[in-house]
Every structure is written in structure tokens, then in C-alpha cells.
Amino acid sequence: MTKEEGGSSMKQGRSSMMANSMKLISAGTFVQVLAFLLLPVIGRTYTESEIGQITVFLSVVGVLTIVATGRYDQATILARSKERALLLLFTALRFNLIFCLALIPAVLIINPFLTDSRYSGQQTHLFLLPFFVFFAAGVISLLSWANSHNQYGRMSIAQISQGLGNNLLRIGFGLLKMGFWGLQLAALLGGMAGIFPLVRKQALLSQYKRYVTRRRLRIAARTYANFPRYSLPQAVIDILSGSHVSLLLPLQYHDAAIGLYGMAYMLAGRPMQLISDSLSRVWFRRVAEQKNTRQSFLLPIRRFVFIWLLVAVLGSILIFFFLEPLVVVILGKKWLLCSSIIMAMLPFFIFNFLSSVYNFLPDLFGKQQKFM
Hints:
Helix content is 82%, strand content 0%. Helix 5 (129-148) packs parallel to helix 7 (179-193). By secondary structure, it is mainly α.
């Protein structure tokens, strides 16, 4: 490859990456703007205790969802052919199904032990856990498959469908005074809404019949065994680093205090997580392509890290002066302590953002075991 061809390829890559990033970021921005506009209603419709209960429940869902993918979703993006990507998609879905079927008896066994524990508020809601995990992991696998086909338009629509469904259902169920049940069902149904844009007109069933056999699935699972073996434990550690607080808070605090933490994360942490997830999908695909064509990708990564840290520092200064009155105006006085929680967690949010964007690097270079 000549220098002119290499330069042209890099320019096209940057242009393509920018366009794909903007699709996903625009979708994420729309969802977050909608969520922000509805926060005054949610903050005044639900109690601190109800927000606390859904925070703990969704933290459990988040950890188990990562396990349910087996990290085969990450392998899907690295597939060098559409047929192999399809095999890895169904490998991930099969792993998900087996895990969630095993989760059902586990829930039945664990549930009675919650009666006299600090997690008793979760007891009657725990039965929905396998359904939550199954659909959440399914969406992640389908998103990775769409990413491997550069279907960023579908991914954006799926993101909007999830956010729109979840936020509008929260309001509807809140007005019906459904409390924790309403928040739970809104999250489940909203998450399921993201499936339809990803599978519509994709003929997955006919492709399954044409290419997928049990033998091929076994071969795909063995070929990419390092993903569940090494990448999965690291991914679980990563998500626990962000969710262990909400999982452990019930041991010392009541639901209302956990609700303050949950609302703080909803206001600040969740938008950053959504944007970092979108950027990670684009970066993963782009860096994988550059690696396969032996192009350098270190300079764009360094540039992005520098820009993000600069924006984060300037943004933190502004937040320090305006956060408290902003929280009162948006959520009401009962959520005032959220501002202090957000400021305390700001350094974590900033560096976790970068970690989330580039968490694919060990998978990309086959260094999962070394990274652990």
C-alpha cells in the first residue's frame, strides 16, 4: 500500500467512524434529553424507596446479563465473515438461553432466604430476573451482530426504541401508582422494544436454517473459548466495580438512601455510560478493521483521551457551581442530596467512561488472560 493510498484510507476511516459515531451518539442524546425532560415527573411520581429498589434490582440484572452473553457478543464483532458472525450470534444466544434456564431454579432456591434479610424488598420481584437477563443479553448479542455488519442505523433505532419505551412507560406506570412494579415492567418492556429494529427484515430464521448446525455451533464455541474463559471474568469485575456500591448498600442503608444514590446515577452516570457504550461499539469495529489492515490506531486513541480529559475537567468546574440548584429545580428538594453524591462520584464517572470506551482492547488482541 502506497503512502497516498494509506492516507486516503485513513481519511475515509475517520470520516466513516465520525458518521457512525454521530448516528449512535445522536440516538443516545435523544434518549437522554427525553429522560432529562421527564425526570421532574419521575422524581415527583416515585418515592426514594422505589427508586432504591429498582436500582438494586437492575444492578443484579446488569451483572448477570454480562455473564449470560458469555462474551461471545464481543467475538461476533471480530468475525471475518458474515457466516462466522452469524454462528457467533447464535452461539451467544444459545449460551444465554442455557444460562437463563439455569437461573430459574437458582432464583427459586435463593428467594426464601431473602425473607428476613436486608434484601427482602426484592423477594416478590426476583421471579422476573431470568426474563430480564434473557432479553437484555439477547439485545446485546443482536447489537454486536448489527455492529459486525456496520448497521449503525438499526442500532440507533434500537437505542431510541429502548429509551423511548422505558421512559414513557415509567411515566404511565407511575401515574397508575404501580411503584416498584411499574419501574420494573417499564425496564423490561422498554428493553424488549429494542429487539424489533434489530431483527426486522433480517431473515435470521432462514439464515439459521441455511448456515447453522449443532456441529458448527460447537466448533464456534470452542474456537472462541477464550472469551467466556478469560474475557468474561474480567467483564464481570469491570461491571462490579461500578455496581458493587448499589449491591452492597442494602447491608447498611434503607431503600430511601439507596434511592438517592440511584437517582444520582440516573442523572449523571447513566448518560455517560450510554454514550461510552455507543462509542465503544464504533471504536471496536474501527480498530479491528485497522488492525486487520495493519494501520496505526494509537494516535486517534491518544487524541480522544486528551480531548475527553480536557472536557471532563472544564465540565467538572461548571458542575461544581450549578449542580445543586439544578437538582432542586429538576427533581425537587427531596432529592437535594443527589448533588453531593454526584460530586463525590465524578472522578469515578470520568475515568470509568474511558475504561468503558476501550474495554474491548484485550479481546481484540487476544490478551484476555494476561489482562486479568
